[in-house]
Design a protein that fits this description.
It is built from six helices and no strands. It is mainly alpha-helical and 103 residues long. The N and C termini lie far apart (60 Å).
């Protein structure tokens, strides 16, 4: 059984894969023809309904002729932005202009 967090991760990766495939104007049939991958499996992965291995992601990235990191950057860009904002807020929260030392 998968947790809600895991399911969300699968959906984000799947959505990234689908958006890249569509940007390249490729249909599932096209992917099947050039990769020998199964269309229904790809569809399940793109909808976040099926777990996928790193090896499969790398193979799919090669089929799409992209760097595999593009998948993760696209899938988790909002998470990355949120973490960056949290770090900025942490720094500002610890900053106190009244505690300046005169040197």
């Amino acid at each position: 059984m998968t947790s809600q967090h895991e399911h969300n991760v699968y959906e984000k990766i799947g959505s990234a894969l689908k958006s890249i495939r569509l940007e390249k104007k490729l249909k599932l049939k096209d992917i099947e023809a050039i990769s020998e991958m199964n269309g229904p499996t790809i569809s399940n992965i793109e909808r976040g309904k099926q777990n996928v291995s790193i090896g499969w992601l790398i193979h799919y990235a090669n089929v799409l002729e992209i760097d595999p990191t593009e998948i993760f950057l696209r899938a988790f860009k909002d998470d990355f932005k949120e973490k960056q904002l949290e770090k900025i807020y942490e720094r500002f929260n610890t900053y106190n202009p009244n505690n300046k030392s005169d040197t």
